[in-house]
Amino acid sequence: MKKSILALSLLVVTALTLTACGKSGAAASKSSPDYELTKVKLPLKKKVTLKMISQGAALAPKDPNSKLIFKRLEKDTNVHIDWTNYNADFAEKRNLDIASGDLPDAIFNAGASDYDLLNWADSDVIVPVEGLIDKYMPNLKKIFAENPEYKQLSTAPDGHIYSFPWIEELGKDKESIHTVNDMAWINTSWLKKLGLKMPTTTAELMTVLQAFKTKDPNGNGKADEIPFSFINNGGNEDLKFLFAAFGLGDNDDHLIVDNKGKAIFTADKPGYQAAIKYFHEMYQAGLIDSEAFEQDWNTYVAKGKAQKLGVYFTWDKTNITGDNDDYDVLPVLAGPSGEKHVTRTNGMGFSRDRFVITSANKNQELTARWVDKMYEPLQSVQNNWGTYGDKKQANIFELKDGMLHHLPLNGTAPGELRQKTEGAGPLAVLNSYYGKVTTMPDDAQWRLNLMHQTYTPYITNDNTYPKVFLDKKDTDRLAKIETDMWDYIYRKRAE
């Protein structure tokens, strides 16, 4: 408690200090001067600068302007971006910058919760943007007109739009790539070495894992195999996928929707408890990675690269164990009842928090025009995956006949290359773009096919819980509940 009070006191003192510093004069301002530009057309005749806070991925350059995608964008618009870029502790540093009172022109990759957006709006930190969309953003306006659900999802309960979204379509409904996130992968070379069949039930999986532990499947004479690993509360790397073998299953929201339209909490149901007992037996038998409850991404990947894992979880196996044939997707397992079931995540390719314009911005038309460039189809595709023509590193694309063609990655992890080359931020990639603006990524098409063959027949829920934009009171109440509840769920699950 004393540490918490001290930390809070330091935060307040720091914020007050930053406020004093931020208001000391124009030279210290984090926002750009008024360029008095109207009827803006890009590229500008004379280069100007906009100032933005952003967050970068772990493997991304510290200065976004060193990315080819932003170099090309600056050349195309004649707008230079002065970035304050944080590669770690983004939310805390962003909030301190906001508390200083000296705001930038905008926040790129804002990472804002719904409560953040509504609170910032009430505090005049950010401005509503629906008027800017109507007047200055033809690309986004067209997307909203043709896909009204995205406009609805972007609109707050008070009728305003406060942020620009990220949209990624890859398949529809149950066939969407976002339907399942944490796929389970099994070492098939170990199965062959030990003369084992692919498990089809939870009981058979337990037997396979015991063989992985005791029969030296990697043949090095050491007991260094890790039969079963995951990252606790690790999103795509969590073990939730297997909970479906015992009942309703689980997902990151601990919330599913039945076919009567009822929202159901998952973590207090008998099937959830049965899954916990199953994994307890697995743990007692020494089959679960002893570091699974505290390991980070880098540790997890290192084990995968060393080919030490029997069964593990992730979105795409190439991110963990590379592009090899030693691992395949684990089939949907039948549980004690004999039934097979896949629980849908509530995922969809939509996030409403990718870019906000602050009240300090004196060049809102210019900023809106610049952001609208993000929604040009060719630019959106590059923002989402990476760019072309980079002579210093691998490229995601080749630009040919006005269309972006995905290049073979030849063993390069797609997630790593994406971090290094993508623009991220606000964008829209629609299903209608494939075959016209860009090719379908090979890894995405492969994953969609794998899901269709392996998972789709066992998905019985017709709906997911939608990304409802609640009002500030309910958003605040829900955030407080989830802060305590989610921590409690994962702590008790680990125990």
Give an overview in words.
It is a single chain. The protein has two domains: 10-173 and 349-438, Periplasmic binding protein-like II (D-Maltodextrin-Binding Protein, domain 2); 183-346 and 465-494, Periplasmic binding protein-like II (D-Maltodextrin-Binding Protein, domain 2, 3-Layer(aba) Sandwich), CATH 3.40.190.10. Helix content is 37%, strand content 13%. The protein has 17 helices and 14 strands. It has helices at 2-22, 68-77, 90-99, 114-122, 130-136, 138-146, 148-154, 188-194, 202-214, 270-284, 297-305, 318-321, 364-373, 377-385, 414-421, 442-454, 472-494; strands at 48-55, 79-86, 106-108, 164-168, 183-187, 226-228, 255-257, 263-265, 309-314, 327-329, 350-357, 397-400, 403-406, 427-429. The protein has a six-stranded mixed β-sheet. A four-stranded mixed β-sheet has the order 6-9-5-10. Strands 7-8 form a two-stranded antiparallel sheet. Strand 12 and strand 13 (403-406) form a beta hairpin. Helix 4 packs antiparallel against helix 17 and helix 6 (138-146) packs across helix 7 (148-154). Residues 1-27 have low confidence and may be disordered.
